[in-house]
Amino acid sequence: MDWQTILNLGVSVATGIIGWFASNIWQAHKELRKELHDHRVEVARDYVSYTRFSETMGEVREMLKRIESRLDK
């Protein structure tokens, strides 16, 4: 075998490895994007917004103040 054949073989193997690695990264990237999208949908569906939480906590505080005032009497 001459040097050109060895060089061509080496470049071919290196290109194959780089292509396989890039393909794996691309698949992982696609899966991560899907998981991120699913997470955004879950957060929007299941978790309460900050304004809604603040309103509810305000109502709870008012109830606690009324209970405390009745206990003080």
Give the tags.
73 residues, mainly alpha, 2 helices, rod-shaped
Please count the beta strands (DSSP E, at least 2 residues each). 0
Tell me the overall shape.
Answer: rod-shaped
Rounded to the nearest angstrom, the distance between the terminal CA atoms is 102 Å
Task: Give the total of domains.
Answer: 1
What's the rounded overall pLDDT mean? Answer: 93
The percent range for helix content is over 70%
**What percentage of the residues does DSSP assign to strands (E)?**
under 5%
| Biggest sheet character | none
Radius of gyration: 31 Å
Q: What order do the SSEs take from the amino end to the carboxyl end, as H and E? A: HH
Give the number of helices: 2
Structural class given helices, strands, pairing? Answer: mainly alpha
Runs in which pLDDT lies below 50 for 5 or more consecutive residues are none
Mind explaining what this structure looks like?
- With 73 residues, the chain is mostly helical.
- The chain has one domain (3-72).
- The protein is built from 2 helices and no strands.
- The mean pLDDT is 93.
Describe how the helices and strands are arranged.
Elements: H1 3-46, H2 50-72
Summarize the structure.
This protein is mostly helical and 73 residues long. Helices cover 92% and strands 0% of the residues.
